[in-house]
Amino acid sequence: MLPWLTRRLAQSLLLIFILVSAVFFVVRLAPGDPLNQVVEEELGAGDRELIRQRLGLDGSLIEQYQRWLGSMLQGDLGTSLRQQRPVTEIIGEAMGPTLLLTLTAYGLQLILVIASALIMATRRGQPLDHAVQGIGLTFYSLPFFWLALMFVLLFSRQLGWFPAGGWESPDAAFLSVGERWLDRLHHLVLPAMTLALGAFMGPARYLRAGLDDVLAQDYILAARARGLSERRVLLRHGLRNALMPLITLLGMWLPNLLGGALVVEVVFGWPGMGRVTIEAIWARDYPVIMATTLLTGVAVVVGSTLADLLYRWADPRVRIPDLSESEGGAHDAS
Amino acid sequence: MADNETTGSLLQVRNLCVDHFDPHTGARLSVLRGVDLDFSPGQTMSLVGPSGCGKSIMARALLGLLPPGFNWQGEIHWRGERLTDPDTAAWRQVRGRGLGLILQEPQASLNPVLRVGHQIAETLRIHQGLDRAAAWNEAVQLLAETRVPDPQLSARKFPHQLSGGMRQRVLLAATLACNPELLIADEPTTALDVSVQKDILALIRGLCRDRNMALLFITHDLNLAPLLTEQVAFMSEGCIEQVVPAAELVLPALPRRTETAPAEAPAVLKATNLSVVYPGATRLAVAGVDLELRPGQAVGLLGESGCGKTSLGRALSQHIGLQDGSLTLAGEDCRASRGAQARAQRRRVQMLFQDPGGSLDPRQRVGAALREAAADQGPTNEQLLSEVGLDPALQKRYPHQLSGGQRQRVALARCLATSPDVLIADEPTSALDAEARNLVLSLLEGIMRQRGLALLLISHDLEGLQGICGQVNVMFDGLVVESLPVGTSFNPLHPYSRELVRALPRTLREDPALWVQETFLPRMETPTSGSGCPRQGNCRLQKPICGKELPPLKMVSNNHWLRCPEAEAEEPSHFIDT
């Protein structure tokens, strides 16, 4: 276990280093001088040089790269060209709302995935199966922005149940802590619902195929033959085995958790990572673009490492070496 | 009712019919056509029939666990009470406490992610209401009863950490946790080696006697039936045709070799000191084997799982690389050839695999599979299919539309499509029922003679080898431990070969004393030292010298080679006279 873990972590660190370098060179080698984004064209050459130095845009590409690596190691992601504030500060502010939104949405989505997969696998071909599939596929095939707009139209404009945008009311500063969180949850409902409903059918169909496979196995028949209840057979023997391939999928969710939901955050005016990214791209705010790209990349690496770890924990066949090979007993299946 | 409890009928089945809906044709197919069956406590009966005759479906119908799309009619009474709806608690109670089921594939019958002790304890907690600790202790007890070595430790293992035989014992223990009155064993040893099969059968027999448990033993191997049960029921196409007492059963005659081997021809495939090691493995999978295959002659390779016989077959057909040794095909050095020459050599050595379901592409029609393999000038699909005794019209079918025996014959036709010089058949019959097995074996023999093919028949089935092969090599732990001719009789000397013969159902029936003790120690207890005889620690002829050096393969009589100096002096035992 430990040698494996060391090797896996070393791989991840190497990947992150390659990623940091790639992000730097790809952005810097793109055409256009980022300086033009901050200063007027007609500024004198001396002043331009001064500002160039202050922004770390002077010297050769290799020197810039070394400085960028050095500041990265100190946790300094640079200064936003547009907002003239440290990038870490901007990301720090956006991370809270993003995590609130994405964790809620993905938690909700996971529940929907498991519930609908169980229904589809056990009620195969029955009306309930068709109903779940019909609803799920309808949501799945609608684009997020349209779904978001329809929810706003229905639940906000028509029914007036939930606010149409933002993550807190304008008067939030005057509320007590408890009331302030209630207010945020109220704002959270529509964006979280959009994200969860719009995407759950993909993984749900994946899980249903897994369940179909597992439920046809002999150990399910053997468990039923021992008189175990259908509920126990399904949840303990069926679902546990069928969920394992989903772990890899969960690892791929992490980048979305941190990177935020671009479209939904913009539509609902949610002050999260997605909106920060979009705004930085519009403004060619290179330090911010590099930081968010990096963050997503690191999340991919960390997510897949975590998924590997989780998989080893969940599947004893990976965790514990196979001894039966050398023992013999059953015929080699050739 | 009280009467039934003690003496009356346990299970009564009247006019059981099962049919299912075939999505391909849209028709209802009849699987069982009016089966009557009676079991009283302690009664034992075998159910024998070819695959597809409805044996397994009947077992599942009794348990109320028919696959989706299957319907049943008729009457099933358990202890006088009629069972109607499989989903009711009443039928689940019967599943839990009355009927137990063990299945063919021990690796597939246990949940791979739960410790085996938990899978047994789970049943105890539900049906006997024990708490966690008590259930665990009882699970360990049951593992001891099914004679799993070191039950405390084994209970904490996951299924993949146990051998096939051990997994079958665990499944048996989990089934006994329900304390069943009728055990249904559906081909429980088909996937196991003969020595393991013998131990499992002995265990089931002992448990039925000790617990006065009734037994329905489902098998396609008629040889096994009289070992376990008093009665034998024959099933065919969904009907039980007759029930006879096992004592009156006449077993089919052994296949006989019709002619003696032709005169010595030069070897077409010759291997010298062949060794194979897999990446990361410490032991050699094949540890220096010499073998010569001659045109028109069959050589047998007998051995149990993990002995390296499949690795040897794959090395001979150049599908895995050699660690050491030499391999020549008609005088050409195979190890030196690359690219087009190596591919041409591979076409001349074909492999027939154990599982035709896995070796045929499920999305490729039979005709396409044959055309793909055949050379431009090669035989036509019609010629190939009629050579293996199949209707040429089958080439429009997909593999899943064929029976197991038909699939294996298609796989054989595909081997022949390249007009090979050598055919390596790796357990070609072990996935087939008795009838299909005999058909494939006689087909192999006929084609071998007709085409002058050199045939290597790899099998754990000694009786199958005897019918075709002139010479049989016995393999253990990557080594050939004995190589002997099969003429009118088969008289092995090596203690391991003798144990294999002793575990054969036919031998067991002739000499019930052989049931008494388990001759094979579980292999996980076998001490493994780097040098010496691989059987040390597990051998009745053991001497101190056995641990020090590996004995050479020495000729003891004409064409009889033996790797055991202690056994040379032994009297031939005439175990099987053909």
Biggest sheet of chain A: strands, sense, closure?
none
Q: Greatest interface and its residue counts? A: A-B, 38 and 66 residues
Show unreliable segments of chain B: 1-6, 519-528, 574-578
Output the radius of gyration of chain A.
25 Å
Indicate the overall shape of chain A.
globular
Question: Could you give a quick summary of the protein structure above?
Answer:
The complex is a heterodimer of chains A (334) and B (578). With 334 residues, chain A is an all-alpha fold. Chain A contains 16 helices and no strands.
Describe the structure.
The complex is a heterodimer of chains A (334) and B (578). Chain A is built from 16 helices and no strands. Chain A is mostly helical and 334 residues long. Chain A has a domain at 93-290: Orthogonal Bundle (MetI-like fold). The longest helix of chain A has 36 residues, at 87-122. Chain A is globular, with a radius of gyration of 25 Å. Chain B is an alpha/beta fold and 578 residues long. Chain B has 3 domains: 2-248, 3-Layer(aba) Sandwich (Rossmann fold), CATH 3.40.50.300; 269-487, P-loop containing nucleotide triphosphate hydrolases (Rossmann fold, 3-Layer(aba) Sandwich), CATH 3.40.50.300; 490-560 and 568-578, no CATH class. Chain B is built from 19 helices and 24 strands. In chain B, strand 1 (11-21) and strand 2 form a beta hairpin. Chain B is globular. Chains A and B meet through helix 9, helix 10 and helix 16 of A and helix 3, strand 6, helix 4 and helix 7 of B.
